[in-house]
Amino acid sequence: MPEHSPSPTPERAVYGFVLYLGTYFGLGLYFIWACVPEEWLQSIGITYLPQRYWVLAGPIYLCVAFVFAVLFYIAYNFTITLPPDSINTITDQHAQYINEEKISVPLGSVPPLYDIPLSQVNRALYQD
């Protein structure tokens, strides 16, 4: 099974092009519905359309729903964030501290990632 990658493939190009055309086709139908008088549409046989109220109400509802979704997402993240005095905001079971004796980094290379203990951070910041 091939590895997933974000690089362009012929299938993605076709899907993107169809989505591009469909978007402009839908926008054109929306503008026709919004701007052409109903008598003209009925004269060519288009009789079942939503009320003209939805020409403006639909996009406004979508915009307001998007704003509320963003606000809900932010509020939800605030509710699941641990309080500052919780021990889990300092460390957790996945913390990896450096072992000074075992590490040997060649000169000029990037050292491995590790968590800095809170006491070391306080010493560096507050010069205790």
UniProtKB/TrEMBL annotation:
Membrane keyword on record: yes
Lineage, opening ranks: Eukaryota, Metazoa, Cnidaria, Anthozoa, Hexacorallia
TM region positions: 12-33, 53-76
GO molecular function, one term: phosphatidylinositol N-acetylglucosaminyltransferase activity
Gene that encodes the chain: Pigp
Membrane topology: Multi-pass membrane protein
Family membership: Belongs to the PIGP family.
Function: Part of the complex catalyzing the transfer of N-acetylglucosamine from UDP-N-acetylglucosamine to phosphatidylinositol, the first step of GPI biosynthesis.
Identification of the protein by name: Phosphatidylinositol N-acetylglucosaminyltransferase subunit P
Pathway: Glycolipid biosynthesis; glycosylphosphatidylinositol-anchor biosynthesis
Record keywords: Glycosyltransferase, GPI-anchor biosynthesis, Membrane, Transferase, Transmembrane, Transmembrane helix
